[in-house]
Write a structure and sequence with these properties.
It contains two helices and four strands. The chain has one domain. The protein has a four-stranded antiparallel β-sheet. The protein has 72 residues and is an alpha+beta fold. The radius of gyration is 17 Å and the shape is flat. 24% of the residues lie in helices and 42% in strands. A hairpin with a 2-residue loop joins strand 3 and strand 4.
Length: 72
């Protein structure tokens, strides 16, 4: 956790257990801004790509042509 005045950044590793007993592990980053002791902004980012790979039990393949199309 990093704190700079009224701003906070955290990086957490989450490991929820599914109903079938499998554990899915992924990263969560949060960026929070406070004003007068209240949260006024909260941005959360999760490593959803890695989480989906674990749920599907196989790696996702991203081809160069798909990346080029996404940038266009």
């Amino acid at each position: 956790m990093l704190v700079d005045g009224n701003r906070v950044a955290t990086l957490n590793r989450l490991s929820p257990r599914r109903s079938d007993g499998r554990v899915i592990s992924y990263w969560l980053a949060q960026f929070i801004c406070f004003c007068d002791g209240k949260v006024v902004e909260n941005i959360s980012l999760i490593d959803s790509f890695h989480a989906v790979e674990q749920v599907l039990s196989h790696p996702l393949t991203v081809h160069d042509s798909q990346m080029a199309d996404a940038r266009a």
